[in-house]
Amino acid sequence: MLRGCAGLLRSWALRGPKRGRSFSSEVLHVDHSLPNPSWNEDMRLLFDQFMKKSEDGSWKRLPSYKCNPPERIEDVKIFFPDAKLLKEQMSQAQQFPRSLGEGVGFEYAMFHNHVEDRTVCIFQGGPHLQGVPGFLHGGAIATMIDSALGMCAILTGGIAMTANLNINFRRPIPLCSVVVINCQLDRVEGRKLFVSCNIRSMDEKTLYSEATSTFVKLDPKKKN
Ligand SMILES: CCCCCCCCCCCCCCCC(=O)SCCNC(=O)CCNC(=O)[C@H](O)C(C)(C)COP(=O)(O)OP(=O)(O)OC[C@H]1O[C@@H](n2cnc3c(N)ncnc32)[C@H](O)[C@@H]1OP(=O)(O)O
User: Cα–Cα distance between 176 and 87 in angstroms, integer?
Assistant: First the structure.
C-alpha cells in the first residue's frame, strides 16, 4: 500500500499534475521550479549545473506548484477522513513556501536522485524572509529544510509527516544569497524515515546549518 503511494507520489512529483482545464488552474499549475527573472546569476548557474547532471537520468528536477492537484487531496482524505477539506477552503490553499510573490520569498528548485535517495534544493531566500537585519529568519530556513527533507522522505517512503526536526544553525545566511541544501535518507525503521541535511554556500566552504529529522509514514488504519 505505502509502496504504491510512494510510486504515485513519485510520478506526480516528477511529472507534475494532470493539466488543468480552466485558466485559473493553469495559472496555479505554473511550475515554479524553473528560472524566473528574480533568480540571480548564482541561482541560474547552479540550476544549469543540476540540469546538466539530470541529462543521464540520475537526477530529476522536481516540478513545484502553488496548489496540490485534486488527486493529492483525495490521497490525504484516506488518512484524515475528518479533515475539513472543503472545496472553498482548498481553492485558496497554497503550498506555504510558494505562497509569497516572485523573488521576495522562497525561490528554490529541487532535484532528486532516486538511486542514492538524495534530494538537493538550491535556494535563494528573498527580502521578505529577513530575521536579523541582512540575514534569513530561522523559521524561513526551517521551512526550506522541512520541505527539502520532506521531499526526500516522501519520494522514498510514501506519504509521511514530520515527527521531529532538529536544526543546528551554524552561521547566519545572508539575505538574497544562494545556498544548497543537501538531503539524504539515512535509514528506514518500520514506518520511520530518518533523514538529514546540511546547508552550504555555493563554493561549499561555509556550513550554514545542519539538521536531522524523523518522518513517520502515515498509517491508513489509524484514521487520524
Ligand atoms: C500528508 C502528505 C501529503 C503529500 C502531498 C505531497 C505534497 C508535497 C509535500 C512536500 C514536503 C512537505 C514537507 C512538510 C511536512 C510537514 O510539515 S508535516 C507538518 C508537521 N507535522 C505534523 O503536523 C505531524 C503531527 N504528528 C502526527 O500527526 C503524528 O504524531 C505522526 C507523526 C503521524 C505519528 O503518529 P502515529 O502514526 O500515530 O505514530 P505512532 O504509532 O505513535 O509512532 C510510530 C513510530 O514513530 C515514532 N514517533 C512518533 N512520533 C515521533 C516523534 N515526534 N519523534 C520521533 N519518533 C516518533 C514512534 O516512537 C513509533 O516508533 P516505533 O515504536 O515504531 O519504533
Answer: 36
